[in-house]
Design goal:
The structure is a homodimer. Chain A is an alpha+beta fold and about 500 residues long. In chain A, about 40% of the residues lie in helices and about 20% in strands. The first copy, chain A, has two domains: about 350 residues, 2-Layer Sandwich (BirA Bifunctional Protein, domain 2), CATH 3.30.930.10; about 110 residues, Anticodon-binding domain (Rossmann fold, 3-Layer(aba) Sandwich), CATH 3.40.50.800. Chains A and B meet through strand 1, helix 1, strand 2, strand 3 and helix 3 of A and strand 1, helix 1, strand 2, strand 3 and helix 3 of B.
């Protein structure tokens, strides 16, 4: 208290790139996480919750496009000058957890995790620095049956949270196939390899002809800018094009095409074999191409994938900011990463998993009108006509709550009754309860049906208004019964 | 990939003071949070989720015993050199949120929030740097009816999560009464005031005589160390002692004693009046002294409280680390803080709320055997006898799951069958399913009741062992029915 100088008022603002979530935004997310956890649990996955903070050395540098250790993360030094950081995903912490507790954990270890992650990246529209992920991973299973299981579970999960079959597709590819293609091209130059990968990633946008141009001399893009090409000859580029166009309605044909694209590459052949096995396992369980399909154009940015990669896309169309139709796009992705635990232990521990972008999935469900939009469950508001009788009003709300009805007493300044009704309106209250001195004397309460009241105010003729009263006087001891009756009518 | 030097292996460790939570630890907490949220929601409170990161200036410096802005918190500078920090509680963010969004929020604003908070404090046994809080606050209600409501809701919440009446007590006091006592003592010296407050906080431990000594010359404590006293005369100390000993079985007598202790202090009298009103409101709703009581010895450390303060204690005894009996102690606390929003807006906005220490409450329920300890819901494990028939095994688990049974296929190296059963054991599986080549040919599966098997292995005589087989052979199409039968028998 030695400080005398008065500090200026702090600004009431979320830090740049962060936001607050209110009411249904919070509860709808919690509900979705609970549903997803139920599916994961059913599949034998166990919950894991690690803390938001990890050592920078444990996190490593696996963010896409990030080279320096604490670029892309929020990091600081602890009292011993060691660097700590907020986790940027749930996979790096899993690798650390598994390495740390491996003697106590079952092998294979199936775990799920859900919670916020943080990225120190430039925020943008709909792009925040804290967001939720919901992951499931299997550590210690080399068999691609583990990958197939993850894909099946992802499909089940999407349907369970409310994305109907036909509105999504889980697309599966294999990094090894891609590596086989690059091998058969004989690219030794790392930069050229990276350029080719980047080009493959653009296939969805520019199509086959565009990819040919970009692999060759270059291409004039839609904005009129000239994009330099990778500089390959048409012959050299052929395996990439063959790979990208290998998808066929007949999955056996797809595999044959892939086999062609990889030439004689051993790793490529291994990759095609794994994809076939995943396809067979899924087909045997009835997951057809309407839910999960082999798609060679899936690349996934992260460098740590070593085998199968998968992505869940929502295939229905929405309007973007500029009113143009586009597919909703990716809501989940993952793959096999056999080297992450090895970082810690030196021993290779195969692992595979998926991460669901919960906030994007919620946005999709809102877009489709599958959550939100229902009548908000505002509380019954008991108004205060005489502030000395607060105990009576609190007793009313207690009675309502004990009957399972959400209820509250107005706790602001009760002087202006209009403010109380405005408050009830802002709270989206279905019912207001009024008990002034006269009512108290006569042992009655007034019960106002605010939803009906609002409808009448909007539409009714004078006759209807008179015929359909939205306010009822009932004996005090019928308070709960009458409120319930109104709630039932409106539900 | 220009880097050539090989980095040393990172350590697989949680940062100091952090920990990982596994399985039931995670789901039991999630279940408790869900239950608490239901009670809060029923009382008309709306969910709010702010991010873990705030600006240091918004957080302010309200941690107990912390003077410098970013002491006690984890803080770092963002790209504009502004200081950011992890929130240390959910109250400071609420004040920021309310100030930022006040034009859109109802007034009063009842909100609940739950999530991790972080403290950069010395970790200790059971004391972590990240832990969960679960808060409910009412912003914009000056009436102490809001405080009474919080106390009633806290009592309801504790019972709902499984603390029976009689095993807890919500204790209520009022800072204004304490201020009245200090005023009537005529202490102008801040240091002396602080010393007196600290002494009051020790009343539970040292009792009336001890407090008298500590307010006077000093006291020899149990360890043999001499603790300097505040240096007051016996007369000066009298109001403090009168205040601390004012609690009477007859609550009217308690209030009379408090009135004596505060002498003629205006603020003290206001405080007693508020306490009486809270007592009346709670009594009218049937919350008696078996649930909520007025207790002048409740102080609460935080400097920002301005009126009523409350604390929920669990009153049952547990054994401490040294095997001594002690009360479980505090699991929740809160109070009225009328100045927190004012920091931002300049306008006084009354507020009151409570924070539940979820992890301590979980520990209490585990201590009482109210959660955990039941048979863990391990998955049914389908073993792999022939790795080329993985699709068949995955189909089995899919059937089981579709019937609502948690199930998984063994995904490790299937070579050693013993390892598969050890795995099932580690997973606390109730049932293992076995289908080798012979079974497959004969269209049957073996189903092993692992719980019964373990019991028999532990207790049974040879006859019993023979009489109660724990392994059954059933036709393949009766797999689900037989597994369900065994699960039902064991549940």
């Amino acid at each position: 208290m030695a400080k005398v100088k008065k500090a200026p008022r702090p600004k009431a603002q979320t830090p740049k790139g962060f936001r607050d979530y209110f009411g249904a935004e919070v509860t709808e997310r919690a509900d979705m996480l609970k549903t997803i956890a139920e599916v994961y649990h059913q599949y034998g996955f166990d919950a894991l919750e690690s803390s938001g903070v990890e050592t920078v050395e444990a996190l490593g540098k696996f963010l896409p496009d990030v080279d320096r250790p604490n670029e892309g993360v929020f990091a600081w030094q602890d009292e011993d000058d060691a660097w700590m950081a907020l986790r940027y995903d749930l996979t790096a912490p899993l690798a650390r957890v598994y390495a740390q507790h491996r003697n106590d954990l079952p092998l294979p270890y199936r775990r799920y995790a859900m919670g916020p992650v943080w990225r120190n990246e430039k925020p943008g529209p709909g792009r925040y620095r804290q967001f939720y992920q919901c992951d499931a991973d299997t550590v210690g299973a080399a068999n691609v049956a583990a990958d197939a299981e993850i894909c099946a579970m992802l499909s089940d999960t999407l349907e369970r949270v409310g994305i109907p079959r036909g509105d999504y597709l889980v697309r599966v590819n294999n990094r090894k196939v891609l590596n086989g293609v690059l091998e058969t091209m004989g690219l030794s130059d790392d930069k050229q390899r990276d350029d080719v990968l980047r080009t493959i990633d653009k296939f969805d946008k520019v199509g086959e002809a565009g990819v040919r141009e970009l692999l060759g001399k270059g291409r004039l893009d839609a904005s009129g800018a000239y994009i330099d090409g990778v500089g390959l000859s048409a012959d050299q580029a052929e395996p990439v094009v063959a790979f990208l166009t290998s998808k066929d309605a007949d999955v056996a044909k797809t595999f044959a095409n892939l086999q062609d694209a990889i030439g004689g590459s051993k790793v490529g052949s291994e990759g095609v074999g794994e994809l076939e096995k995943i396809g067979d396992l899924l087909a045997a369980q009835g997951y057809g191409a309407d839910r999960i399909e082999i798609d060679p154009s899936v690349v996934r940015g992260l460098g740590y994938y070593t085998g199968p990669v998968f992505e869940a896309e929502l295939t229905f169309e929405i309007l973007d900011d500029k009113g143009r139709k586009r597919q909703f796009g990716s809501v989940a992705g993952g793959g096999r990463y056999d080297d992450l635990v090895k970082r810690f232990t030196g021993q290779e521990v195969p692992a595979t998993g998926v991460s669901i972008g919960v906030d994007r999935l919620l946005a999709a469900l809102r877009e489709k009108g599958r959550i939100g939009g229902t009548v908000a469950a505002g509380p019954v508001v008991v108004t205060v006509m005489d502030k000395n009788r607060m105990a009576d009003y609190q007793t009313m709300v207690a009675e309502l709550r004990n009957a399972g009805i959400r209820a509250e007493v107005y706790l602001g300044n009760p002087k202006n009754f209009g403010n109380q009704l405005k408050y009830a309106d802002k709270r989206q209250s279905p019912v207001a309860v009024i008990e002034g001195g006269d009512e108290h004397e006569n042992g009655v309460v007034q019960i106002k049906d605010l939803i009906l009241g609002a409808k009448i105010a909007e539409n009714a003729t004078l006759e209807e208004w008179k015929e359909r009263p939205s306010q009822y006087e009932v004996p005090r001891d019928q308070l709960v019964a009458k409120v319930r009756e109104i709630l039932d009518l409106n539900s």
